[in-house]
Amino acid sequence: MRGADVSDREFSLLVAYGTDMGNAEDAAMTFAEATTAAGIPAEAVELNQVELDQLNTTTHFIVVVSTFGDGEFPDTATLFWEAISASTERLEHLSFAILALGDTSYELFCNAGKLLDARLEELGATRLADRVDVDGYYEDPAKAWTTDLVKQLTAAQAGPAAAPVVGETVAADTAVRAQERNRPVAATLTVNRLLTTTDSDKEVRHYELDLTGSGIAYQAGDSLAVHATNDPDLVAAILAQLNVGPDHRVADADETLGVLLSERLEIRTPSRALQELAGPAGYGEDVLDLIKRAGLTVDEVVDTLRPLQFRDYSIASSPLVHPDHIHLTVATVRYPAGDRQHGGVASTYLAERAQTVQVHLRPNHHFRLPAADVPIIMIGPGTGIAPFRAFLQERAAAAAPGQSWLFFGDRRRDNDFLYGDELQAFHESGSLTRLDLAFSRDQETKVYVQHRMRENATELFAWLQDGAHLYVCGDADHMAKDVDAALHEIIAESGGLDADAAHAYVNDLIKTHRYLRDVY
To answer: Does residue 369 fall inside a structural domain?
Structure first.
């Protein structure tokens, strides 16, 4: 129950988000636009910028939060979660609602939203509505959630005489505008070039997409969503296993099964529902593997598959240099599982079949270059080099005076030095002040970027003390965690700080947007 003082408090609204790839931010901004248009001014802010004292003076708290990694909060929400987890302040006066974004292919689906929902309840806050957990595409569920809450908020602010129909119309119109922002447009693939050598045990390719006439205007640090189609050989194999043709019709579907499997449904990564029906997928198994093992019918398969989702790639070019083109750096996923080869959806589509590609821009407002005179430290092994190639192009084109330091790593220099000639040219011209390399397989003891960081600990800390912004891009499961641990150690040792003080130092870097990560 709410505290007795609720009716004495003046209505106030706080809208916040914790975002990884930008979906939660987009949904929260759309929600704030809807409430503003309905007469309740609001601005969406990242959760890390919300102080607990604000919750003590707020009556309504609306949150959109995604889940990152192994059920963790995204970087834009970690500080808030840390603070509210430790807080003992009661929040009986607070009404809240949470939209949780996630992916059911991960075990801890929407875990961040679930944790925050439970914690607010523990502290005495009251739900305006039950938490909504979204799997994959978020626009339609976010639209319905926004419409419902705008009606409730207009009523809470102005009483029963408020006109909820207006709020519903505004929320719907705003959500439609958000969907239009994410609508794919056609771009022509003009370059498909192998970056690794044929002797490499990886396949990394450089792509260039012609944006002429697309209406896309991007910034360095943004990502591009690629709407791929499924491998036609895999589609044909699934149809053959199901003993039906591509023109087969399933109940309540407007399109043939061939179209559904090719363009609409996820057939590389089995859904949780399909795995519950057929048994857990083994390493790398796809939908065909599960159909073979469990002898599934057409209806069982179609009813349990998830929608085919676009794939995000960090943009590897600057609009100052390539205003009408976007460059991508993509590792082609290929691996054996069982008795056949498997491959990634978008990476093999780009490598083997793409000509005209459906894409939409994914702005990353939290991964931007600072002012031209501010020093930057970039840590981007493997395909994590992509946004830093864009950063370096941008700074070179603008003749930016700020120093820059890049840590790049991969397996072998001769085979895997992605954009090696370009990076060395940036270094020789002075656009890149320092270049530290870590090729893990070129010596008996493996060396990674975090080792190079520790070797240069004193200077790296001095750069941070001088106001440098630190960026990390690449693998989230191992590299980003190892780099984060190294950063804490470097700050503690070079700054003469204990573990708690080093943690606080890093938290301050995060809160002031000087420690930014684009990890996947």
So the answer is: no
Its sign, for the CA torsion 117, 122, 127, 129, is positive
Q: Which CATH number characterizes residue 345's domain?
A: 2.40.30.10
- Give which of 278, 274, 269, 415 is closest to 333, Cα–Cα: 269
For 17-26, write each residue's pLDDT tens digit.
999 888 999 9
How far is 474 from 470, CA to CA, in rounded Å?
Answer: 14
- 217's tokens: 């205007």
Residue 519 token pair: 């990890």
Tell me how far apart the alpha carbons of residues 160 and 42 are, in angstroms, rounded to a whole number.
21
Which residue stretches of 226-361 are H helix? 232-242, 257-259, 272-278, 287-294, 298-304, 345-348
CA gap 243, 418 in Å, rounded: 45
Query: Is 343 within 8 Å of 334 (Cβ atoms)?
Result: yes
Closest CA to 271 of 232, 302, 296, 292: 302
Which tens digits make up the pLDDT trace of 11-49? Answer: 999 999 999 888 999 999 999 999 999 999 999 999 999
Same domain for 94 and 30: yes
